[in-house]
Write a structure and sequence with these properties.
It is built from seven helices and six strands, in the order E-H-E-H-E-E-E-H-H-E-H-H-H.
């Protein structure tokens, strides 16, 4: 028999994170294109990002038939947050500049690259990368590099960069609680053995 879970954050009811999830406004619009393999992942940080941001949307799939419509948001300039050739470093947006539609593929690096391969419109977007990202707080995974962040951390850092006059730190509160809860559930010894 499966445990009862919160229908909003999808966590078990006794580990619901909803009370910690903010409702933040942003000038930047966030569009997360999530690979289907991430949907039921216990640490689905993309879902936390969308729940915490009023101007965000999450779409699940591998091939996005309506991608042209998703990317053509009047008044926004679409940018793909993904490293690669020709990627420019994100910088603060001037108030008079057209706001950014920040598009983020969500999945392992391999799955994210697959999303780009299967969706040529996505791959054709101008690419942006993070400048000097902070160390990841995602202590439960082995990252491919020191600069590798969870989807939620990458979005938070990108929004801080684009809109330095606003605070997006509250997005990380449920994330930190999620990580601490997972560590507590596995036990300190198991955590140290597998993740230190």
């Amino acid at each position: 028999m499966s445990r009862a879970r919160c229908e909003r954050c999808l966590r078990p009811e006794n580990h619901c994170l909803c009370a910690l999830i903010p409702a933040l406004d942003s000038r930047t619009r966030v569009l997360i294109l999530q690979h289907p393999s991430e949907v039921n992942h216990a640490l689905n940080t993309a879902r936390l990002a969308v729940l915490g941001l009023n101007n965000a949307e999450l779409v699940v799939g591998e091939v996005f038939d309506d991608l042209e419509t998703l990317l053509d948001v009047p008044g926004y300039q679409a940018r793909l947050l993904f490293p690669g050739e020709g990627a420019t470093t994100l910088i603060a947006q001037a108030d008079e500049a057209e706001p950014v539609l920040l598009v983020i593929p969500d999945g392992t690096w391999r799955k994210a690259r697959k999303l780009l391969h299967l969706n040529p419109l996505l791959a054709a977007l101008p690419r942006v990368t993070l400048d000097n990202p902070p160390p990841s707080r995602y202590r439960l995974r082995k990252a491919p590099g020191a600069e590798a962040l969870s989807t939620l951390e990458a979005i938070t850092h990108a929004l801080r960069t684009l809109e330095p006059d606003r605070s997006f730190e509250p997005l990380l509160t449920p994330f930190d609680a999620l990580i601490e809860g997972q560590i507590a559930a596995m036990g300190e010894q198991t955590f140290r053995r597998n993740h230190s």
